[in-house]
């Protein structure tokens, strides 16, 4: 029973990587997928801006309050900006954005490709002589790789700004002090390490969502399963990858 | 004309231990129209999809003009599929694309110029009796219109062979007859080989030269339409009877 399950999981992982390889090889036909790529860039990026802004604004705001509370016995508030900025750039920005995207975009990809699978649209592409991997999955991968880091930059910016505003309003900490703290302790690896993580997360979200939808079966029920599976697996993989990348980058 | 275009040899396929296709062999000649008859769930769709490699058979061979497509690499398989058209049971139009984009896609894939594509799309939509619907989206079409757009998409590349999966199922009789007429015309006037999966023996007899019956994984009947009255296989007789009953009913009206 356990062994059977294990074999199933390993088979899936194998098939996942084969599908990703086929998708990436589709890059030779890039001009044919430009329309789909634009659609995905919009779906991934533009349409996610409100949600990411909203979530990171509140995360930044609560970070001020929380950090101030945590450091109040052993450090002056002058360090607040530095503390919040580090937490946001290294961890909160990339992970929060990725989890939001896993829920919004990963699920959307799985539902769309799953529907295309069970309504034979993927078969129809194959018959036309178009490799569905390169045609459907590659644009989603590219969109993920580009848009998730960009949204992370946005999230970082909004969260830190939100934090600065709340520090001023509630803790009466001057903007100049807040940003001075950030400047003083800033290491570029914090920002770029965070962005590097978000590139990996972007791949995970697009790839897991695509694979999950691509292998859907059994009609509407199967599409539902594929969607849930995409969100669960991509969220967990993001958190796992975050740990290992954290160890590599900052350990 | 008498050349074999598609040949199946001992084709078998199981799903989770259930044998759906059991050593099927079939030869289809160029220009022929063959109907595959069978009850719901016997594996007609599985058989049709295996013919273009959409499903991998467990064993056996499929030859397209002598080339064994079960042995082809992915890339070569895609190349050989250009000779095929496939009309799906549920039409399978791409729902994010307009009718025009749906029909143009296989032409773009072949690298045709924009002018040529525009002409071909227009012509083929007229052929299926739906001129001027280029800019509609699939969800704006009725079931019968979708089927006809599906046929248009399959035919626009001028393939040598078209596989039809229940092209008339679930349609009103008038639209059904129209589609049958279209399939027959493509076959007779343009010499497109047709393999038509159906459970309606009357559309089978009206379009096809030959009828085969799929039952319990085997092709149990293979007969020219002229001789269908002579077939003794009970399931085939059942199919014939059901058609006759309908005829009687129609007479009474
Ligand atoms: N991908 C699959 N996985 C598991 N079983 C399948 C799969 N595809 C088909 N089957 C099984 O194979 C059998 C034949 O299915 P198929 O769709 O070919 O029937 P059909 O003759 O086309 O029926 P219908 O007239 O209803 O379309 C069914 O029992 C079905 O459950
Ligand atoms: Mg079927």
From TrEMBL, chain B:
Domain (ABC transporter) ranges: 6-241
Pfam families in alphabetical order: ABC_tran
GO molecular function per UniProt: ATP binding; ATP hydrolysis activity
Keywords: ATP-binding, Nucleotide-binding, Transport
Entries under InterPro entries matching the protein: AAA+_ATPase, ABC_transporter-like_ATP-bd, ABC_transporter-like_CS, P-loop_NTPase
Record protein name field: ATP-binding cassette domain-containing protein
Organism in which the protein naturally occurs: candidate division WOR-3 bacterium
């Amino acid at each position: 029973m356990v062994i059977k399950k294990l074999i199933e999981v390993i088979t899936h992982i194998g098939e996942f990587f084969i599908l990703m390889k086929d998708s990436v090889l589709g890059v030779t036909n890039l001009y044919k997928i430009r329309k789909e790529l634009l659609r995905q860039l919009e779906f991934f990026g533009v349409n996610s801006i409100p949600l990411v802004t909203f979530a990171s604004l509140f995360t930044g705001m609560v970070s001020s309050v929380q950090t101030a509370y945590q450091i109040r016995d052993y450090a002056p508030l002058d360090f607040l900006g530095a503390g919040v900025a580090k937490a946001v750039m290294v961890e909160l920005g990339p992970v929060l954005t990725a989890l939001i995207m896993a829920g919004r975009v990963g699920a959307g990809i799985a539902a769309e490709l799953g529907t295309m699978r069970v309504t034979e649209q993927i078969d129809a592409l194959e018959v036309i002589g178009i490799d569905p991997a390169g045609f459907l999955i590659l644009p989603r991968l590219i969109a993920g790789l580009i848009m998730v880091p960009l949204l992370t930059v946005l999230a970082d910016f909004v969260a830190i700004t939100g934090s600065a505003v709340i520090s001023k309003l509630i803790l009466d900490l001057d903007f100049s002090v807040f940003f001075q703290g950030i400047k003083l302790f800033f290491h570029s690896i914090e920002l770029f390490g965070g962005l590097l993580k978000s590139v990996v997360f972007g791949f995970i979200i697009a790839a897991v969502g695509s694979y999950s939808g691509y292998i859907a079966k059994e009609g509407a029920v199967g599409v539902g399963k594929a969607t849930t599976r995409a969100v669960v697996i991509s969220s967990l993989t993001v958190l796992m990858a975050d740990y290992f990348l954290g160890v590599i980058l900052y350990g | 004309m008498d050349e074999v275009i598609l040949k199946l040899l001992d084709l078998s396929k199981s799903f989770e231990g259930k044998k759906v296709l059991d050593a099927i062999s079939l030869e289809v000649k160029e220009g022929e129209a063959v109907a595959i008859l069978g009850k719901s769930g016997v594996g007609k769709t599985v058989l049709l999809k295996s013919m273009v490699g959409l499903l991998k058979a467990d064993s056996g061979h499929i030859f397209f003009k002598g080339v064994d497509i079960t042995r082809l690499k992915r890339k070569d398989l895609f190349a050989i599929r250009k000779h095929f058209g496939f009309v799906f049971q549920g039409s399978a139009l791409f729902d994010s694309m307009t009718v025009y984009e749906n029909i143009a896609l296989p032409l773009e894939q072949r690298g045709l110029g924009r002018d040529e594509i525009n002409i071909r799309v227009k012509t083929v939509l007229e052929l299926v009796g739906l001129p001027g619907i280029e800019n509609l989206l699939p969800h704006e079409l009725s079931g019968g219109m979708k089927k006809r757009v599906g046929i248009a998409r399959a035919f626009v590349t001028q393939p040598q062979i078209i596989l039809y999966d229940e092209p008339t199922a679930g349609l009103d009789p008038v639209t059904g007859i129209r589609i049958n007429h279209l399939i027959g015309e493509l076959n007779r006037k343009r010499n497109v080989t047709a393999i038509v999966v159906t459970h309606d023996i009357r559309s089978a007899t009206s379009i096809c030269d030959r009828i085969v019956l799929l039952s319990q994984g085997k092709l149990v009947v293979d007969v020219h339409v002229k001789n269908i009255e002579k077939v003794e296989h009970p399931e085939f007789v059942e199919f014939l009877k059901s058609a006759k009953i309908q005829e009687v009913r129609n007479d009474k009206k």
